[in-house]
Design a protein that fits this description.
- This protein is an alpha/beta fold.
- It folds into 2 domains: 96 residues, no CATH class; 172 residues, no CATH class.
- The protein contains 9 helices and 11 strands.
- Strands 5, 6, 7, 8, 9, 10 and 11 form a 7-stranded mixed sheet that branches. A 4-stranded mixed sheet has the order 1-2-3-4, covered by helices on one side.
- Strand 1 and strand 2 form a beta hairpin.
- The longest helix has 21 residues.
- The chain is globular.
- The mean pLDDT is 83.
């Protein structure tokens, strides 16, 4: 996920949580938080306890995030992969609930079918000498098995609601959720196999260098038992820090029932 996609993710995240976007330009995002988002992100529990106890209306804060490295010295919070703020945002996605069901808003006076899509947002974490997170948003058509990448970008263009519209009905999925999810995992595994992984080799080489340094440091120790304990601890710490790994986590997902027209339009892969 490139920096510009991180910026899009942040914009989509705050829009989805009903925050007003005050500025969105060249890697700078200024947001007016809602009460709920202020409680989740701004670490002001005593303030919100106070205003709620007195029955006052709270004053949620405005925040500015910078994702463009060329503007990181400007007023605002520099946010990037690995930053505590980004992990905090990921955590709020978990607390909000990982699974939802929504329907496309369709204005119709005749019976209209809505087609089920399984949509899952994945976080791919690359860990080693350097750390990086990547977001993959995948949609799977649960009737014909067609798959669409960057599905959230498509859904952002559609009006959605929590109840089925009048005169509409849903088509029963032909593909079970477990099978659909496994297809997505298979896609991600193939995607990762096609990527260039020089970072992993770099991490592995650095790991071996760090191990040699630890061995050299302890090789002249006269206290054998103490040496073994500390040596093992140091070696484990080096392994934990530099061992190249790729982890795949689910951020959230859901079933989205879309009109046949939209399903045909979206289905590109």
């Amino acid at each position: 996920m490139a920096l510009e996609n991180l910026h899009e993710f942040l914009n989509d995240y705050f829009v989805a949580n009903k925050c007003d976007i005050l500025e969105n330009d060249n890697g700078k995002l200024k947001v007016q938080l809602t009460d709920k988002m202020d409680e989740w992100l701004m670490n002001r529990p005593f303030y919100w306890q106070y205003v709620k106890k007195l029955g006052y209306a709270g004053e949620p804060m405005q925040v500015t995030f910078i994702t463009n490295p060329d503007r990181r010295d400007e007023d605002g919070e520099w946010i990037h992969f690995g930053s505590p703020r980004l992990h905090q945002i990921f955590n709020t996605l978990t607390t909000q609930g990982k699974f939802t069901k929504l329907f496309e808003q369709v204005e119709t006076a005749q019976r209209t079918a809505l087609v089920p899509w399984l949509v899952v947002n994945f976080r791919i974490s690359y860990t080693g000498k350097h750390k990086k997170d990547e977001i993959q948003s995948i949609g799977l058509h649960l009737i014909n098995g067609g798959m669409k990448i960057n599905m959230m970008d498509e859904l952002e263009q559609l009006p959605l609601q929590s109840s089925i519209p009048d005169f509409c009905y849903t088509i029963t999925p032909m593909i079970k959720l477990k099978s659909g999810y496994q297809r997505m995992i298979t896609y991600i595994e193939k995607y990762l196999q096609k990527q260039e992984h020089s970072w992993a080799q770099e991490s592995w080489d650095h790991l071996q260098e760090e191990k040699k340094l630890v061995e050299h440091f302890y090789q002249d120790s006269d206290e054998e038992e103490q040496y073994e304990n500390r040596f093992d601890q140091e070696m484990q710490a080096v392994e934990d820090r530099y061992q190249p790994q790729i982890n795949i986590d689910v951020i959230n997902g859901g079933i989205f029932y879309l009109s046949q027209l939209q399903s045909t339009k979206i289905l590109t892969e």
